[in-house]
3-hydroxyacyl-CoA dehydrogenase
Amino acid sequence: MRRVAVIGTGVIGASWAAHFLAHGLDVVASDPAPGAEARLRADVAAIWPTLAPIDGASPDRLTFTADAAEAVADADFVQENGPEREEVKDALFAVLDTAARPEVVLASSSSGLLPSVIARGCPEHPERVVIGHPFNPPHLIPLVEVVPGEKTAEKTVETAMAFYAGVGKRPIRLRQELPGHVANRLQAALWQEAYSLVERGVATVADIDTAITHGPGLRWAVLGPFLTQHLSGGPGGIAHVLEHLGPPTEAWWRDLGQVTLTRELVETLVAGVDEELAGIDRAELVAHRDAVLTALLAAKARTELP
């Protein structure tokens, strides 16, 4: 594949575009919003220094059109990043389905919508629709969740998995479609308890961020929750952990908080983040995040297990 269409050029779309360009692909981007092209080119230019482009890669291989049909007409792969609303997806995918060649995969970056729902907008070729959900920022975070729908062809899944792997991603295939897929559901479970702990006054927003970034988050970035748990069991591994710590863990589950995002709780969370940042602006925070992620990914690549 040489030419990728990026449909929708907000935060996720711009990051995808930069990533594809850095891997030597031609990118044609489309977004109907006024000023979208200028913003996209500025975003790609800002991202470019954080990347390690392959030989021949260049931001100059980016083209833009406001017409989504024109963007996908000659594309070999389509990455859609439109608003997370069913009616918008339906209208957009109807255009993409008509304009793209029948064999071209239409992958959506949707963070929560089901692929079967999105595919309803494709009356001609629903079999080529799949979720290809990245994590922000896609130009740095390797994970992509590939989720087929009821009518998705096996060849579509195989093509998407191979494509993402070929541009340096770590794709996983889901065996069932669920709202929020896998990683967002795991995050949502943690957020539920984090919000509850703040609401109950157990810890501050900053305390909880510290607890994760200087505690389990470090281990999860290396091995994930299951292998981390396995190592905590010593020679007996995860079997020992489940036998001896399973019952108290179940008791904790029963005690986890159930929260509603009331106006008061939202205001508390926002105020907590403002206090934690203490005058650090967004650009500085993003630069810090990207620098640490880049160093972490480089360390993981150097030390990855066979």
Q: What stands out?
A: The two ends are 28 Å apart (CA to CA). DSSP finds 14 helices and eight strands in the chain.
